[in-house]
Amino acid sequence: MIHVLATITVASGRRDAFLAEFHRVVPAVLAEDGCLAYGPAVDVPSGIPIQPAPRPDVVVVIEQWRDLPALQAHLVAPHMAGYRERVKGLVAGVQLQVLSPA
Description:
The protein is of the alpha+beta class and 102 residues long. 33% of the residues lie in helices and 32% in strands.
């Protein structure tokens, strides 16, 4: 299994618009062969001292894939190309972490 954390920084004040577009593509991604989990998450102000301040312009996508080939197929799926086109004006940056269970 492969875990992916995609940290997406959106244009200031555009997180809701980004999430609306993101939620449009989720059903297609969940239907992909090898997708085990795929969903967005945002910071929760917890009051826990070690947690940094909430980031209002950040979305973290938490993904699980059967294996690396399934993830690689996801990255070139036609619905992902359409999604990237729709959000290109909303996204300021992306950081990707691909992990395996330890």
